[in-house]
Amino acid sequence: MYILINGRRLDNLRRDYGHTQKELAAMAGCTKYTMSRWCADGEHRVRKSSIDDLAEALGLPADRLIESIEAGEHNGDAPERSCRATDLTAAEAEWLRVYRSLPPLEQAKLRVRMEEIIQEIASGA
């Protein structure tokens, strides 16, 4: 089974998560060349199993990833990039460097824990 994806949306999502094409390719088990093709402008046919690998690498449910990058009509485009590397303080840049050095599974665990902390703060706990 193939899914038609929007390359620009995938590339924006990749950037949002702070990965290079090479890093995301390694995490998802494909080549840098393949990732480069998928992230290029236009629509691309990608195997569902590859989408599942990408979702796992990003720590997202596959259906959420598909919703974010699928080609066709959407309510809005890909998420806006939240920050650029040049917008980071020295401490934030160091945290990002450490995060990027972690294996994909540890990155996913960290993202889940960060979400939990954000929810605790938001609820006043």
Can you give a write-up of this model?
The chain has 125 residues and is mostly helical. The protein has 2 domains: 71 residues, lambda repressor-like DNA-binding domains (434 Repressor (Amino-terminal Domain), Orthogonal Bundle); 39 residues. The chain is 62% helix and 8% strand. It is built from 7 helices and 2 strands. A two-stranded antiparallel ribbon has the order 1-2. Helix 2 crosses helix 3, helix 2 packs across helix 4 and helix 4 crosses helix 5. It is globular, with a radius of gyration of 15 Å. It starts with a strand and ends with a helix.
Short description:
By secondary structure, the chain is mainly alpha-helical. It is 62% helix and 8% strand.
Which structural traits does this protein have?
125 residues; 2 domains; two-stranded antiparallel sheet
Write the topology of this structure.
Blueprint: E1 2-6, H1 7-16, H2 21-28, H3 32-39, E2 43-47, H4 48-58, H5 62-69, H6 90-101, H7 104-123
Antiparallel strand pairs: 1-2
Helix pairs in contact: 2-3, 2-4, 4-5
Order of helices and strands: EHHHEHHHH
Any idea what the shape is?
globular
**CATH top level label of the largest domain:** Mainly Alpha
What is the name of the CATH superfamily of the largest domain? lambda repressor-like DNA-binding domains
Mean pLDDT: 79
Distance between the termini: 44 Å
CATH architecture of the largest domain: Orthogonal Bundle
Class from secondary-structure proportions? mainly alpha
Task: State which percent range the strand residues make up.
Answer: 5-15%
How large is the radius of gyration? Answer: 15 Å
Strand order of the largest sheet: 1-2
Number of domains: 2
The percent range for helix content is 55-70%
Number of DSSP E strands: 2
Low-confidence stretches: 73-86
Q: Given the structure, what is the number of helices?
A: 7
CATH topology (level 3) name of the largest domain:
434 Repressor (Amino-terminal Domain)
